[in-house]
Amino acid sequence: MRTYFDKLLNSSQQKKQLPIIYPLLISLFSGAIFSLSLAPYHYWWLAILSPALLYACLSKRTAKQSFFIGLAYGFGLWFVGAFWLYTSIHVYGDTNSILSVLMIAIMALVMGLFTAVQTWVYRRFFPETPLTFAPLWVFFEWSKTWVFTGFPWLFAGYAFTERFLDGYAPLFGIFGVSFVVILLACALVEILRKRIFWIVPSAIVLLGAWGAAQLKFVQPKAEKPLSVSLIQGNIPQDEKWLIEKQTDTLIKYASLSRTEWGRDLIVWPESSIPMFQTDIEPFLDAMNMQATKTGTAWVTGIPYWDLAESQQNNHPMYYNSILATGDEASGLYKKQRLVPFGEYIPLSGMLSWVLPALQNDPSMSGFSRGAIDQKPLQVKGHDLGTAICYEVAYPNLTRRNASQSDFLVTISNDAWFTGTASPHQHLQMVQMRAKENGRWFIRATNTGITAFIDHNGHIVKRAPMDKDAVLRGELPAMQGETLYTRLSDWPVLIFSLLLLVLGWIYRPRKVDVSFKSRR
């Protein structure tokens, strides 16, 4: 095995390259193992090994060959790393197993095109060096936050949440961490190629991570902590939207909350009230009265039917939203980033045969997107920056909502993915958002993982998964801003662009010749 990898790493010195099938298979394998670096497995070193193997496989390959090597890597990455979609498609979508796997394979092929284009661009236009591979990787990770509405999952930097390199998060965000991870991965390959000078930049970025971790951007406000109770109702997804179960759901959440009135804040999860506010006004009035009487703020997830907007647009305007009411509490947040096939079905008329069970789910009837410039919720004199479920995967969206906020709150329903890695990876993203913005995160979920995350991204307390639970915590409000909150992703994007421009200008002429000679 060692002999083979020596040949792979030193392929530039070989008169004849190894057949293309070998790098294709190695790239497929290396992409498939990447998700093991993330939660709940935490084999963080695979986040170094996986891209390092891809980088080695691209050595001296043509742009066309590199496209398919990247496609193999991307397919393995997404087919294995996002296979948790099988549960929502097959179990709750009532789609047969063969078609479910086929749909995931098609998704992996489409998402794999990101890596395929990335590797094609790398070998077609730039010299072989970590200083061009790493910035390209960052740009294509960033593109996953907005191309086709975005699927910002499986980023390299997440493997180092609560680990040494996450010191860069308050400075440059997740993409800054990813840049360093990929740079170290490529540097490892170069060092094995006996280009020893790469030890120096590797040592510099590692020392920089230590230095970054010493910086303090935020501090607690000089006031008493907020007493918070999170309610985890543990309602199975296949029962959540059944009309005959709606009353039972409300009774369960009200019962779990009975002992918590009198605390500063009670938070219920996403869509914990499985009806529009227009259908349940007496219940909402009763809860508001109870919260006001006991001096408690109450925040809950609820589908919201905006009647005024519906009249203006001549069609119903439904929102997945968070409502704040009760004592010293007000505000309504409407979700901005919706999940395709999770909160609306693209081309639903054409695809109704694919996901038949979801057509009767009110959450699939077509939610509208909330406005970008929404105000934070007001709770006990504090501003709560908000994110609903999948939104927390978008770094810049969470950053905007965190700006000028004392706390961050996210509510979710991961019952769609019970028994998979998805809830754990989702929580890991919340940790990174807390670290980036220097704010405590309040996370209430239906089935788990309900948790309190501090401003350094550490899980302070969490509830058990798939059980009824009440989680209590005392949270300090934070003040100050991290560099990332102030400047967003621009520093790392501009730096990456600068490296690519320099790589293009100073690329060796022989690289261009090698491409021409292989056409």
Automatic annotation (TrEMBL):
Segments traversing the membrane = 20-36, 42-58, 67-86, 98-122, 134-155, 167-189, 196-213, 490-506
One annotated GO biological process:
lipoprotein biosynthetic process
Looking up InterPro entries in the UniProt record yields:
Apolipo_AcylTrfase, C-N_Hydrolase, C-N_Hydrolase_sf, LNT_N
Keywords on record? Acyltransferase, Cell membrane, Lipoprotein, Membrane, Transferase, Transmembrane, Transmembrane helix
Which GO CC terms are listed, alphabetically? Answer: plasma membrane
Q: Which GO terms describe its molecular function?
A: N-acyltransferase activity
Q: Known Gene3D superfamilies for this protein?
A: Carbon-nitrogen hydrolase
State where the protein is found: Cell membrane
Q: Name the domain of life this protein comes from.
A: Bacteria
EC number from the UniProt entry: 2.3.1.269
Chief location: membrane
Aminoacyl-tRNA synthetase is among the record's keywords: no
Q: Which residues form the CN hydrolase domain?
A: 231-477
Which pathway does the protein contribute to?
Answer: Protein modification; lipoprotein biosynthesis (N-acyl transfer)
Q: How does it sit in the membrane?
A: Multi-pass membrane protein
Record's keyword annotation contains Signal: no
User: What does the function comment of this entry state?
Assistant: Catalyzes the phospholipid dependent N-acylation of the N-terminal cysteine of apolipoprotein, the last step in lipoprotein maturation.
UniProt lists the family membership as follows:
Belongs to the CN hydrolase family. Apolipoprotein N-acyltransferase subfamily.
Which PANTHER family does the UniProt entry name for this protein? Answer: APOLIPOPROTEIN N-ACYLTRANSFERASE
HAMAP family associated with the record: Lnt
The protein depicted here goes by the name Apolipoprotein N-acyltransferase
